[in-house]
What we know:
disordered C terminus; 3-stranded mixed beta sheet; 66% helix; mainly alpha; 2% strand; homotrimer
Amino acid sequence: MGCVQSFRELCDRQKNTNVRISLPAVCIVWQTAMIILFGIFIRYNEESDPHWIEYRKEQNISSDIENDFYFRYPSFQDVHVMIFVGFGFLMTFLKRYSFGAVGFNFLIAAFGLQWALLMQGWFHSLDYNDGKIKIGIENMINADFCVAGCLIAFGAVLGKVSAVQLLVMTLFGVTLFAVEEYIILDLIHAKDAGGSMVIHTFGGYYGLSVSWMLYRPNLNQSSRLQGSVYHSDVFAMIGTLFLWMFWPSFNSAITDHGDGQHRAAMNTYLALASTVLTTVAISSLFQKHGKLDMVHIQNSTLAGGVAVGTAAEFMLMPYGSLIVGFICGIISTLGYVYLTPFMEKHLKIQDTCGIHNLHAMPGVIGGIVGAITAAAATTSVYGAEGLINTFDFEGEFKDRVPTVQGGHQAAALCVAICFGVGGGILVGCILRLPIWGDPADDSCFDDEHYWELPDEEETIPPIIQYNSHMRNKDIVESNFSMEQTSR
Amino acid sequence: MGCVQSFRELCDRQKNTNVRISLPAVCIVWQTAMIILFGIFIRYNEESDPHWIEYRKEQNISSDIENDFYFRYPSFQDVHVMIFVGFGFLMTFLKRYSFGAVGFNFLIAAFGLQWALLMQGWFHSLDYNDGKIKIGIENMINADFCVAGCLIAFGAVLGKVSAVQLLVMTLFGVTLFAVEEYIILDLIHAKDAGGSMVIHTFGGYYGLSVSWMLYRPNLNQSSRLQGSVYHSDVFAMIGTLFLWMFWPSFNSAITDHGDGQHRAAMNTYLALASTVLTTVAISSLFQKHGKLDMVHIQNSTLAGGVAVGTAAEFMLMPYGSLIVGFICGIISTLGYVYLTPFMEKHLKIQDTCGIHNLHAMPGVIGGIVGAITAAAATTSVYGAEGLINTFDFEGEFKDRVPTVQGGHQAAALCVAICFGVGGGILVGCILRLPIWGDPADDSCFDDEHYWELPDEEETIPPIIQYNSHMRNKDIVESNFSMEQTSR
Amino acid sequence: MGCVQSFRELCDRQKNTNVRISLPAVCIVWQTAMIILFGIFIRYNEESDPHWIEYRKEQNISSDIENDFYFRYPSFQDVHVMIFVGFGFLMTFLKRYSFGAVGFNFLIAAFGLQWALLMQGWFHSLDYNDGKIKIGIENMINADFCVAGCLIAFGAVLGKVSAVQLLVMTLFGVTLFAVEEYIILDLIHAKDAGGSMVIHTFGGYYGLSVSWMLYRPNLNQSSRLQGSVYHSDVFAMIGTLFLWMFWPSFNSAITDHGDGQHRAAMNTYLALASTVLTTVAISSLFQKHGKLDMVHIQNSTLAGGVAVGTAAEFMLMPYGSLIVGFICGIISTLGYVYLTPFMEKHLKIQDTCGIHNLHAMPGVIGGIVGAITAAAATTSVYGAEGLINTFDFEGEFKDRVPTVQGGHQAAALCVAICFGVGGGILVGCILRLPIWGDPADDSCFDDEHYWELPDEEETIPPIIQYNSHMRNKDIVESNFSMEQTSR
């Protein structure tokens, strides 16, 4: 008890945002470690190695265009944009945390993808002949996916943590992700093309649990900075739109060549379109005069993409995609209206970006939709070969039937939730240590503490016409001195 | 006469921007209708269905890479970016209408593409065996194209209509588009790869006619909000550049595999490059001190892409593309200088974004260029097979010769204009009904009426150094009180 | 001596930024020249010509998908985005030069690519049968690459030159580039897939030399405008991220089909990830309290992509890519901290964007890395065919061995530096003529002189609640008058 007490005290001592030693140290040490580990483990696979030309002849592949690169590179680039511009700009909505949003997002994504290549490589791409991980385009996509999980979690703690904490959170997040993904995709043999469970459910609950552990009772001291300004909301729309537009690529990036990618892209496209309409409807319905709320438009419009992630490559049917999108737009928007304030007040979960509404809940819905769609699969709809192809009923799983697959999908969803919650609590515990340079409660959501900010001089005042030597700052200062004297 | 009189009065009564019932109702009802119609009509086509693997073997297709998805998906994603980021951000230039520009664009595009899949599907992709519409990647591109026509029209009425009006305008716009497209492409058998006629001419005149019907004599009451601010112009450049860069994908997205797509992309690339130089030249020539006008740079630089739309896949030749771009840059910029003010003053057409200069006129030029290029086609230039391929002189059109094709191209242009003007007048009439929640004349171009706006506090003043508890608002307030007392 | 004296005087006379005659004249004349030259010289190549279908059969190409268009178009579009949005927005960081950054970037890129198609075409794509240049997708990528060299140079002189000067600089830059490229790639037969030498080293030193020739001793008169504001830094991050994300496409765009493109993309992806971490480390280490500097994040994070340009398609190995990125992040950031101020003070080189740290130095490193990697190539690593393929040891170069190739790579680097420095001095000399409309020393970094700017009214003040008829301007004005009277 005394131990817990002193841990509490330790955690609650005066905050110091100076990361001049810790941040460079962590970056350099980790990057060095990455170089060593890559040197030991990572090699090109047969499609990115100069022996490809010989491999092609051996395998009787007729043309270079059948290199997996050409099947997946356009999707990879779209996913890459989602990770860096999509997630980065989506979080720029805060009035004074745009640098942190886009900059820290950049940092942790660049770090996370290297660690993900290793972790996922050990589980999925290890060549047992020489003990090397052989990587190609699909590994790059998967690394980006893995990072997405951590960026989702970042959304919950946005503005309340330091870059060092984010790096720690990403290191553990990627590790947990790789294990969870191995259990879900390989052991349980669930399918999760767009990662509703693996990425969104896990990432969502991971972030929420971390945020719960880092609960700040006095966060309202920063409330003046917790809103947006006009242009920061427009910046955030850049993130929203790039996520929205490229989500079909996200959900189809690692599905089967041919009809698999084709169908996954279409289902996602339709689900997202449907979500936009119901988001607008609910947003308008719950505001005075039917005005729209930018928070909903920026976030809830994306929920449909999350929720068709698992089932995107299944025969969800076009109308099924619309229905999923329809429901998610409503639930996600209602989440922003009712659930987020409730969670903050009663559950002590402070969720800056509302990832519960955008990722966690839609991810769970996606898992359920996936389980139902898988369980309902029939040979008449998929064709005999199509069914085997779509669900990989091959090798040790060749006798599995769709209903059993449905059960396994549901089990996978539980695994994702458990890993998210459990991992988040564990990591949150670590992040409460007072060594990470996180800001005090009245300094949250403020770039000031981690970034060299330009002088404020957004507007050059019209007074410049009268006396060009006199500048904005002088005016305000002289006003101030006037006030002082007049008091 | 009395009837017209009372209709006038009805239309001119007090405006009410409350859309709290109408907007949610329209969104939910329409989205529900979409789900039902998709359930009845829309299915995957053979390339996005799991039976693809069997179809492939039947058709003797050697590899999955020959699925149409791989020919068109990169272009589709580029077109998608143009629709949502391109059109959306291009319209953010107004100082207080960025939310409306990008948000309403998002809404109507997401709605329109669903309805377009149905409308275009009935005309083009209906499988007469089972009465179902079979969709694939090409349908998604065509749906985006169809939506583009409506977004162009949105440009003319930007800031002067409500979201509900935009939805109505899109519903009718998509419907008209599909009919017009069917007449032009199927009945007349004109070619229009980049949609100079089908998309731009139609969309342009549709928007202008609607705007003419919705003429507001007292719009100058909103003139304080009709300009841009520095950063809103930079946001608009995001839209401009994404449109400009991806226009080669737009014009080549649904052209023939192989040389067709290749040539269309190159012609568009060249035409657009040329347009930039003449736009700069004319913009500089018509301003004091040779200064450039952002309105021209944002808009007229795109005119070349519109004008090579029809002829992009023909043998326009590289220099031909440059010439088309050259001319359009000049005409479009002159349109902004002379024509837009003239149209507002004398024709009562208020064209917020100047779509007449960016879409309508260049679209007509594109139709004419297409007709001439088609009429001039010869076997020596195209090759016998090339000529048949390029113009689809097959089936019932196998005896058509290039000169006849040229005539039909010209006829198609007339159809596009008629549908645009006629449809616009009809729809404008409907939109004058006083039930749609449009803003009063002094409330145009203002997000205030349809969006929850963040508090104004863009700049945190330097005074914060002296006394961090004193905030911007306090300063201005105390200044204000001082002034009051000192008067 | 008197001649030099009078040239000096000529150059130093009163500046006049009126370009109303010169800018339109240059644009129209050059665009007309382009049309004539394109008419004489440029034709479609066999893959973009309607005879493709016959060519395909002759060459026994099994499918349209093997048209080079499908190998390269997605990369082309990514490169296109880097040129227009990437470079354009990267330079928007200045508080009052965003229009110039993105607008002039647009203008010179659109002009440069036409001239590049001709210049590069004469050297590389001339069909000696008919004296025509035959162009296709690869030419478009190369034209964009060539323009990149000039846009890099633009970075050094950003804010200090007129649009006319930029056009002149681009005309000469493209010409020099094409000659230098011909020497390096054809005569020396060096490999430079991502253009570390050809593009970045050349472009960097070209820009720095021009800037040295245009040295402005009194540039501090514009120092009030030489910084950023909060939102301009966020705009610049758009440029940074699109450059960063699409750099894998840049370095792989014109490499060999198959493993070449695959490997180049992966190496670049890894190098860039590594650079981000070391950039953050060094940036934090050199600031008070460990704060990050946006200048470093915006620029140095990209250095790794530059430095793997030459070796991207070689067997650099994944860990090798990380090492290159690691080193470049450090060197580039240190460059911003120490070298840029040193160069300005002691070498009279004013480098607005710090292109020496982002392009010139990393480009040289890239050239060295390329030379070492090439010299170390062995048959055991590449395979016999792989080695020949990767280094094109064919035709007259079939007997060249890797060590000799390494020496030639180093020679190529020297050529790039010489062309950059020499060309820059020459062109700088021309640009000092007082006929180009460049701004005076106290008018640099200001859009005011070349753009019609919107009225300043970024913020509608909170006072609006009290008295909506009183506007921002009035307040400041009345404050001003009060001060005047109170003095």
